Amino acid sequence: MTMDPQATRHVLQVPFKGARNYLHSTDIFDALWRHSVNPSLITFKRLIHSPQIIVQSEALPGVQVAAVVDTGGADLKHRLYVYADEKASSRTTRPDRSDQVVADVAVIDVNARAASLVIEREHDFSTVEAAVSLTKALHHSVLPNVEKWLVGSMKYHKPSYAERQAMTMRARIKQVMGAGRLTETEIFADGNHLFTIYFTPRS
């Protein structure tokens, strides 16, 4: 199903990854991507514990938004709002191999706060999953005192970049802000600036 840009409301089923009881940031990104939404920026506001999300072109008054999605424009016409569908009950799951695969093959330079990863064509995780997993592995090596990191926001700089192709991915922590409460990591694939990912520690 492709999302109709003229419609104001879409309901999307999103499977949980592995044993998680919440939707991962990459699950939401990939669900939007599969429905022909090319996010240029996603800002996550809260965790979603429902297997179904509601995507609206207008904000719902009095309802806590889970994520705000910008699709390239400078005005509100290019903004979508993501909410948890609290009434949804049926849930599906899918395997989560990206973290383990990345941890096994990533090369990390702690002093340079950088990491690299060669992704072969035969893999069953998406480009954004690889990017977030590589960023996570880098953070656990460079900033080991934080047990769990969450994606606060993601910028996608090349939405036309082919999905699931072989590539060499590199990540570098550009800056650590607010006494370690926020980090900025740049992700490059084959020399192209693909993502900027902002991590925050889970409290």
Topology (elements, then pairings):
Blueprint: E1 9-13, E2 16-17, H1 25-34, E3 41-44, E4 52-56, E5 67-70, E6 79-84, E7 93-94, H2 98-105, E8 107-109, E9 114-119, H3 127-142, E10 149-156, E11 167-177, E12 182-189, E13 192-201
Parallel strand pairs: 2-7
Antiparallel strand pairs: 1-4, 3-5, 3-10, 4-6, 5-6, 8-9, 9-11, 10-13, 11-12, 12-13
Helix pairs in contact: 2-3
Q: Characteristics of this structure?
A:
single chain, 203 residues, alpha+beta, Thiol Ester Dehydrase, Chain A, 2 domains, 11-stranded antiparallel beta sheet, two-stranded parallel sheet, 3 helices
**Termini distance?**
36 Å
Instruction: Decide which structural class fits the backbone.
Output: alpha+beta
Q: What do the pLDDT scores average to?
A: 86
CATH top level label of the largest domain: Alpha Beta
Strand content: 35-45%
- Number of DSSP-assigned strands: 13
CATH architectural arrangement of the largest domain: Roll
Shape: globular
Largest sheet: 11 strands, antiparallel
CATH homology superfamily of the largest domain: Hotdog Thioesterase
- Given the structure, what is the number of helices? 3
- Return residue spans where pLDDT drops below 50 for at least 5 consecutive residues: none
Q: Radius of gyration from the CA trace?
A: 17 Å
Order of helices and strands: EEHEEEEEHEEHEEEE
CATH topology of the largest domain: Thiol Ester Dehydrase, Chain A
